[in-house]
Automatic annotation (TrEMBL):
Gene3D superfamilies: 3.30.300.30, N-terminal domain of ligase-like (3.40.50.12780). The keyword Metal-binding does not apply. Keywords: Ligase. Residues 359-433 form the AMP-binding enzyme C-terminal domain. One of its GO terms (molecular function) is long-chain fatty acid-CoA ligase activity. Its EC number is 6.2.1.3. This is Long-chain acyl-CoA synthetase. It holds the Pfam family AMP-binding_C. Residues 10-93, 112-307 form the AMP-dependent synthetase/ligase domain.
Length: 454
């Protein structure tokens, strides 16, 4: 069933229940249902219906979620993007596939209820991989692969219609978009500040019973938990001691591992370790990564693939198993899954996934950069911090100010290196490519040839 239909059902049963709260206002379920229905009629009047991909790029999170649900009700496939992206960025992502880009609030069009035949196998949702980069990757999935997991998440967390769910991040992130839509599908109140609320966090937590959050934000939540009973944590591994801190604050933690391409893979409800999410089978295939292996999953929650032929880490085998290259210790059914990072060098930083090659592509054009390698160095709260190692060769060493200016102009915030080093010559593998793993090892070992870039 489309999430929009759930909203209409909640509006019929509890019309005065608060549905969404944002920086510019709030809507009851009756008000939200009316806006969705009227906006869906507007979209159908423009010829936007089943099979159409609709970009949604509104700054206000309440207007954004309304447009997403209107597209859903009309039978189209919503794709949430950053409201600051220009048309060129959208064209990079979607190619010729985009039927419309919604960047202003949709008007209300009166008329009879919108009727759309909706099936579980419809390509009904599209989202960006977390940490979308200079070459954005949009991932397309069926309705069932997105909404079919809702009841399982509800069972694991106890989220229900009487909860107030704080979603403290941008909805362009699939983690936060999923959280918001799950809350509305269950009939809960979704609090959508649209970004990390900063100084207003305490006020939000005073009314919230549930928060969806990435690990490095959990300590901020636990310092002033308010009425919170549950924290749903995804995006990276929990820091040591986080569960004990949460228990002391009276907050239960449910953490999970997944990927935008895979959705949920494993979940830890009590600190006993990651176990397969309902409906998921897991294999760790060893052989190519020394003592570690790649995590492969098979489940109903897998995405169909990337939009516009974009390349990415998603791989499939002939039996329906998929992987994005995450590494883990050898695994046997019944044991906890012990993750150990990404085999392709992707960097997990503060809940975002940064692909090094995308950062390198932008910075390689800076004068004085002969070549460059981007790696992740361990960080106590972010998981890893994006680090650039510049090969200057015989050229003059590039200025850090110029590198940082280029990063600000061409990279999203999560991608921008926070640490900069320079080396006369990068180590390379037999094919001539920089040996990324060796660079990371030399950095960790304090190689004196690699010096900080002032």
């Amino acid at each position: 069933m489309p999430v929009a239909r759930d909203v209409l059902s909640h509006a019929a049963g509890r019309p005065s229940r608060l549905a969404v709260c944002g920086p510019e206002g709030e809507l009851t379920y009756a008000q939200l249902a009316g806006k969705i229905d009227g906006a869906a009629r507007h979209l159908r009047g423009r010829g936007i219906g089943p099979g159409a991909l609709v970009g949604v790029a509104l700054a206000d999170p309440v207007e954004l979620i309304t447009a997403v649900l209107a597209a859903d009700l009309a039978g189209a496939t919503p794709l949430v993007g950053d409201h600051a992206w220009d048309r060129e960025r959208w064209d990079q992502v979607t190619g010729e596939h985009l039927a419309a880009r919604l960047d202003t609030p949709l008007p209300y069009v009166p008329g009879p209820p919108v009727r759309t035949e909706a099936g579980p196998d419809d390509l009904a949702w599209a989202c960006f991989s977390s940490g979308s980069t200079g070459r954005p990757r949009a991932i397309v999935r069926t309705r069932a692969s997105w909404t079919g997991s809702y009841p399982h998440l509800g069972d694991l967390t106890g989220i229900g219609p009487d909860d107030v769910v704080l979603v403290p991040g941008p909805l362009v992130s699939s983690l936060y978009a999923f959280a918001a839509l799950h809350a509305l599908a269950t009939g809960a109140t979704a609090v959508l500040p649209g970004r990390w609320p900063g100084r207003s966090l305490a006020g939000h937590l005073a009314r919230a019973s549930v928060v969806h959050v990435v690990p490095h934000r959990l300590p901020d939540v636990l310092r002033q938990p308010g009425s919170l009973r549950m924290a749903v944590v995804g995006g990276a591994a929990l820091a040591p001691g986080s569960r004990a801190d949460a228990a002391a604050a009276g907050v239960r933690v449910v953490s999970y591992y997944g990927a935008t391409e895979l959705s949920f893979v494993a979940v830890d409800t009590d600190g006993g370790g990651l176990r397969p999410f309902p409906g998921v089978r897991i294999e760790v295939r060893t052989g190519a990564h020394g003592p570690l292996g790649e995590v492969w999953a098979r489940s109903p929650w897998l995405a169909e693939g990337y939009l516009a032929g974009a390349a990415g880490p998603l791989r499939r085998d002939d039996d329906g198993w998929v992987t994005v290259g995450d590494l883990a210790e050898p695994y046997r059914e019944g044991q906890p899954l012990r993750l150990r990072g990404r085999g392709d060098g992707a960097i997990q930083t503060g809940g975002a996934t940064v692909v090094p090659e995308d950062v390198e592509e932008v910075l390689r054009n800076v004068p004085g950069v002969h070549d460059i390698v981007v790696v992740g160095l361990p960080h106590p709260s972010l998981g890893s911090v994006v680090t650039a190692v510049v090969e200057a060769g015989r050229a003059a060493t590039p200025q850090r100010a110029l590198l940082e200016a280029t990063a600000r102009g061409g990279l999203d915030a999560a991608q921008r290196p926070r640490r900069w080093f320079v080396v006369p010559s990068l180590p390379r593998n037999p094919t001539g490519k920089p040996a990324r793993a060796l660079v990371a090892a030399r950095l960790a070992g304090g190689d004196p040839e690699i010096r900080r870039l002032a």
